[in-house]
Amino acid sequence: MTDIFDANKFKHRFRGYFPVVIDVETAGFNANTDALLEIAVSLLKMNSDGIIVLDRTLHFNIEPFEGANLEPEALAFNGIDPTNPLRGAVDEKIAFLEIFKEVKKAQKAADCHRSIIVAHNAAFDLGFVNKAIERNGLKRSPFHPFASFDTATLAGLAIGHTVLAKACKMAGIDFDNKEAHSALYDTERTAELFCLIVNRWKALGGWPLAAVEDDTDAVSE
Length: 221
Known about the structure:
Layout: H1 10-13, E1 17-26, E2 36-46, E3 52-61, H2 72-78, H3 92-109, E4 114-119, H4 122-135, E5 143-150, H5 151-158, H6 164-170, H7 183-203
């Protein structure tokens, strides 16, 4: 049975990919050597009118992997004390197995064939996610290994600014700088920003695409 195209379904909106918004906090810039300390994952949903909104967010404080590098400058910047027992940190593998389970469940409900990471300056977050998956020998990741949606790029195009805090404020999204650099806070603001850009593009008539005439048979002789 042929699948009827419905522009207001996730499975037709992003080439069958289910967008998952992610933010990580780390102990440095090198995914190969520096610890992943915090991760938050926001799941989205789409209503019958094709409007996407934040559904729910998963959040984990992460124990540094054995032998991980902890850059003092990075810890001073994000304010994380990896040794604080009140963080309730869990092992990377435990966190990612739970993330995989919930993402796959949402992906299946949206009838999408794979998930794709959405993040602000996405290459950074994707690098740490991929390295953690590799480090823990995890199989069947729901995420595309190299493709991503970068809200810094999207915001630069749609709003005129690439910094998350400024782009949110220019778009009318509340942003508290005192809460920034928390994976939970930044992920949900990034999710709001992504939804706003996608929904605005739709409202302006950019989606669904207008039919394009096939003029391949109209080549002049």
